[in-house]
Structure formats: C-alpha cells, structure tokens
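Team,

Forwarding the record for the chain on the shared tracking sheet. I've put the sequence and predicted structure together so nobody has to dig through attachments.
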Amino acid sequence: MNVAAATIPHALSRTDCPVCGAVQTEQFLNVQDRHYWRCADCEARYLAPAQRPLRDEEYAHYLHHENDPDDPRYRRFLSKLSEPLLARLAPGSRGLDYGCGPGPALAAMLREAGHEVALYDPFFAPDPAPLSETYDFVTCTEVAEHFHDPRTEFSRLSALIRPSGWLAVMTCFQTDDARFRDWHYRKDPTHVVFYREATFRHLAHGWGWRCEVPVKDVVLMQRPAALGGA
C-alpha cells in the first residue's frame, strides 16, 4: 500500500505528525494524486499538508452541510456523544461547543438538558471571547477531521477544560487500512486527518488524562481533578 518515495514531490514529502508531533511518519497511500501519511506513534493518518484545502474552499463546502438543529435524525446522530457525556456531567455544568457550525444542534440538546453552552466556530461563530474562558466540558463533533493543525487545536482545547472536566470528541474512527482508499470519510475534500481509537488514547496518556470510548467514533477525555496534565 505504500508508494515509492520517488513518486512523492518534494512539497509533499515527509513531515512530523500533525497530531502528536512524532517524527516517525511514513508514506501510507496515494489516491488520485492525494498523498496520505501514517504516524507510527499515534497511528493517525493524514493528508500531505501541501494538499489541504484553502480556507475559502472549506467555507464553500461547509455551506452545503444540512445540519438542521430540529431534525430528529441529526439529533439521533449527535446523541451518540450527548448521551454518554450527559451521564457524566454534574447538573448545571458549563460547556463550549467548539466548531458548532451554522446550526448548533448539539448545543441546543445540551441546553435542553439544563447546561450552559457557549459557541465557537472559526467560520460561523468566530468571536474569540469564549476561548478566554474555562469549562466543565468542551464538545468537538465532526470537527477534528478538518483540523489543519490538530496538535495545536487539541492543546488549545485541553487548556479550556477545568479540573475534572471533559473533552468530548466525535469523529469517524479509521479502522481498516485496506478500505481506506474507498472510504466515504476520506473522500470529503475537507477531511484531512483521520484518527484511530489508539490516537486519542495516545493523546490522553501524554496529557495524563483519563480516556473512555463509550461507543464507536466517540471519545471522552477527562482532565485530572488536581491541576495538571496538558
């Protein structure tokens, strides 16, 4: 499945892992001139940085997303994350929906459950003020796969979490290398990094946080009660 080094243009050559910063990365797959790499440490797969979409291209693509906060099917989809998270939150917790998009359905669901939820999205809710606060929980649903600099993004997110607080992430886990070429998730032009369950366990271990995977594609990472960790 690896492609020969000679076929990789210099601009697409090896880089440190954008998720964990490891230098042990290798060529993984070339699909329709899109070059993917694999990290030997955290097991993430990622698109060559030079091939990431431009900001305007991303925005145009996101405008076609149909995420209606009142759509019961969309709410059922988000309940994969909301239900296990709600089971772990104290009443009246304060959170942030990071990457909320134009229709913040998850925030609405959590508010209906009695929690306070702020919003941030670089395209649709760009006011940076919520990023100067700290929270009992931060949600990141169907967002992490779009991160161009996931290491920086996760460092930012971890800093927003109070002691004993939760970082809740939902993204489609990459599980089968043999199916990667035809995987629908890979074909989205704005999806540039792909995580395995092991990827998040690697991040949580590095921070000294607890890591739970209550259902496939959902990870809950808890900051220790004492100040510490990332």
